[in-house]
Structures are given as C-alpha cells and as structure tokens.
Amino acid sequence: MRTTKENLVIAISMALFVLLLSLVLAVGGLGYILPPPQVRLIASWYLRVTFNPFERLFSAMAPEGVTSIVWDFRGLDTLFETTVFYLAIIGSIAIARGVIGGHKEVDEKKLGLSLIVKSVTRISLGMILAVAASIALHGHLTPGGGFQGGASAAVAPLILLVVFSRYFIEKHGITKNTMLILRSIGLFGIGMTAFIVVIIALASGAPAFVFQNQPKTIAPTGMPFEIGGALTGGTLWFFNVFEMVAVAAGFTIIFLLLAIPEEEYKKILRLGGGEHE
Amino acid sequence: MDAKWLGKWAGVSILVFITYIIFSGSISGYDLLTGAIVAVIVGGLVANFVITEPRKLLEVGRLGWLIVYAIYYFFAAEVRAHLDVMKRILHPRMPINPAIVRIPYRVETDYAMTLIANSITNTPGTVVVDLDPEKKIFYVHWIDAKTLEAEKARKHVSESFEYYAKRIFD
Predict the structure, then answer these.
(1) Segment A98-107, tens digit of pLDDT
(2) Which of A119, A125, A131 comes nearest B46 by C-beta?
(3) How does pLDDT run across A146-190, given as a tens digit for each residue?
(4) In this complex, which of A129, A133, A230 lies closest to B30 when CB atoms are compared?
(5) Among residues B35, B57, B79, which one ends one of the domains?
(6) Which of A11, A275, B10, B162 is 20 to 30 Å from A241 by CA-CA measure?
C-alpha cells in the first residue's frame, strides 16, 4: 500500500512532467512539427488528382483520398501488405497444427455468460454485421474501407466466442476450415481485381497495366467510375468488398486459435520434445 | 426453407436494412440497393439465432405496447429514479440503505426477461447483479432496500416493467 504522501508526490511529478513536455513542444524543442514545404507538395498533388474529372488520366476518380492512395496509387504495396497478413495467419495455423482443442459435448445452456448478455448479443449480432458492411461498401466515398469493415465484422464472431463459448460457434459452422475457405475466396477476389483491367483490355488488344484502375495515356482501358450516377471508384469497390471478406475471416481464425486452452497446445507440443516436463 | 424460417429471415433482414441505412446516413439508390443485398445475406446467416417465433412480428399490438413502454420508461420511470438518487446524493446525511434482494419474474421468453433485467439496471438505484433462470429470480442490488421479502421487493422494483415486458415479448 502506498501512503497518501507518496501518492501526492507521484501526482505532482506527473502533472509537472506533462506541463514541461507541453512547454518543450510549444517552443519547438523537438523540432518543427510541420513537414518541410517540398514534402507538402505530394499532399497537394494527391488532393488535386484523387477525384478530378478534368485530369482523368492522373485521377483515381474516387472522392476518398486514403482509399485512392491505398488501392490505386500504391495498390501493389497494399497487395503485399495483405499477403504479409495472410502469411502471418498461415504461420499461426502451422504452429497450431494438430491442435483440435477438444470437442466437449456439453449443455449449451450452461456455457458462456448469463442469459441477459446472450439475449443482447442475439439482437446486436446482425446490426454489427450491417455496420461492418456499410463501412466496407462506402470505403470509396467516406473514411473506412475493406480492412476497417472486415475488422468490424470480426467483432461479431469475437463476441459470440466470449458470450456463447468456442464449442457453441464451432458447432454452428464458424470453424477454422470454413474461415480459411472464406479467406481464400477474399484473396482470390483481390487477385482477380488486380488483373481485371488487363483481362478487359485483352479482348480489344489494347495495352494495360496490372493494378490499373482508370484509363492512362498509353493504356486507354479503364473501369467505370460511376454506374447510373452512383460513384463506384472502379476497382476500389471490388478491392474493398474482397478485403472485407479476407480480413474478417482472417481475424476469426486468429480468435479461434487463441481461444484454445493452453493445455491443448502443450499436449501436442510435448509429443515432439518430451524433455520439458 | 419452411414458412417459419422465411418469417425469421424477413424479420432479421428488416432490422439489418434499417441499421445499414441509419449508419450510412443516406438513402441514395446505391445505399438502398447495397443495403437490401447486405440485409438479405446477413439476415439469412443469423435468422435462426435472433428470432424463434416470427409470428409475433406480425402482431401489431406488441409494437404499440413497445412504444407505450418506451414513453413510460424514459419519461416516467427513469425520471423518478434519477430524482430519487439525486436527492440521496445531495442530502447532507446521505440516506442509503443498500442490500441485495431476490426479485422473482414470471415471464416466459429470454427477450422479455432481458428487457426487465436491463430496465432494472438502467434505472439509477437498482442493478441486477446475477440471475437464476431455473428459479426465475434476479439478484438485485438496491440502494434503498425498503423490504427484504421477494414478493414485496418485486412490487417496488420490477412490477411495472414486467407488466409491459409480458405484453411486448411473451
């Protein structure tokens, strides 16, 4: 137990620390906060071309700057980011190979939290998925996108896992294998979207780039940026939808693996070594 | 694909569609179309999980009771409970008499029970700390326990909530 005097000293020194730090920041002691003007030119260029029908050859034709950068201007980079995330999940699955986690045949009513929490979860489950889908499907218009939508959608299996237990959700089809299939469908979709303009251009024999969205000077084929007056952002819409599926399924796999009790892992791992009893 | 499942599917889809439109904050053609597609898919996925008796969705009287209850709860029950707790906080002697009491409930469905429990918890002064679904009893922490007898406590705390919950969900 700390005495009142010690608590007082801690409180005063914390307050002094925050005050001094803000003073240092205010007088520029940690360097200039704003980047130099030559770096800010990039920002103004992105603002100019993110949605600009008068400079279509440079534009991503979607009003959301971040999504335009993530899936158009530096789309290849994002593809490899998604790949890294997928490899991390493959790694987790490889570590947990052979770990089944025990199939308990127990009364569903006795698993998980109280009936009150379960009832509230039942109502909010569909609403969580609706919000997640809205975040992903408006990714090319407002802040959000595929990753954010997928992470929100993964909240639904996560609360099911906590409120109803892992045995319950695995019995209802949310298993590692079904999620792996969903994840693969999402990644396949992202891969196909990267080539979609190339495939369209092949029909007419025109040149095209991998990861192309809007028409460019030497590659005149492009995706329509609006359908019936509604902005779609060309390939951005497809990237967001497939990324949501891939991310939601990927997170769910990790949550399922983390919910396996430690003893189950040790049972399998000890079969190999055995000397660390 | 029996009629009962279709009813559940339709009910959940409507809830998902309304949530989607409110969250998106727009009713353009794009939102209505994508909202309908999302509602049909998500509704199909979670239908069995959310609704057990879709027939009750068609009984308009239940919706009427829900509206009456919402008005009663937020503008009468909540205000009364807030004033009571405010009085206790501001009173110089802080007149509290806390205890955990048993409060029985007599509704059948989980949703009706949840409505009563959350109504008790959300009014200041009373909190449901645990429940026993087999004996149908809430354990309620009460800031000013007027009685320790289960039936009398029920009259004080949850009788009016139960009256409406029974008509909305049971």
Answers:
(1) 777 666 666 7
(2) A125
(3) 999 999 999 999 999 999 988 888 888 888 899 999 999 999 999
(4) A230
(5) B57
(6) B10
* Per-residue DSSP letter, A73: I
Reported ipTM: the value is 0.90
Q: Which site among B33, B46, B115 would you substitute to test the A interface, given the most A Cβ atoms closer than 10 Å to its Cβ?
A: B46
CB-based contact B19:B31 (threshold 8 Å):
no
Average pLDDT value for residue range A127-141: 95
Cβ count near B113 (within 10 Å): 24
Same domain, B102 and B115: yes
Burial of A147 (0-12, 13-18, 19+ CB in 10 A): buried
Top residue of A122, A159, A182, A231 to mutate, by most chain B CBs within 10 Å, is A122
Are B46 and B70 contained in the same domain?
Answer: no
Kindly determine whether residue B29 and residue A229, on different chains, have CB atoms separated by under 8 Å.
Answer: yes
pLDDT in the model for residue A276: 47
Q: Which residue of B has its CA nearest to A121?
A: B50
**Could you tell me if B51 and B66 lie in one domain?**
no
Residue A15, token pair as written in the block = 């307050």
Q: Which residues of A touch B28 (CB under 8 A)?
A: 230
Which parts of chain B have pLDDT scores under 70? 1
Interface subset of A 212-271, CB within 8 angstroms of B:
228-231
> Do B131 and B83 share a domain, yes or no?
yes
Residues B90, B30 share a domain: no
Q: Which two tokens stand for residue B5?
A: 């499942």
Domain ranges of chain A: 64-272
> DSSP code of B109?
S
B68 and B53: one domain? no
Q: Is residue A122 within 8 angstroms of chain B, CB to CB?
A: yes
Q: Which domain holds residue B141?
A: 59-169
Which of B14, B19, B120 is the best residue to mutate to test the A interface, defined by the most A CB atoms within 10 Å of its own CB?
B19
Q: What does DSSP say about strands B137-142 and B99-104: parallel, antiparallel, or unpaired?
A: antiparallel
Per-residue model confidence (pLDDT) at position B121: 95
Q: Tell me, what's the pLDDT at A185?
A: 95
Shared domain check, B136 and B107: yes
Closest residue in chain B to residue A135, using alpha carbons only: B24
Q: CA–CA distance from B80 to each of A273, B74, B85, B101, B140 (Å)?
A: 66, 10, 9, 21, 18
CA gap A195, A210 in Å, rounded: 6
Residues B80 and B116 reside in one and the same domain: yes
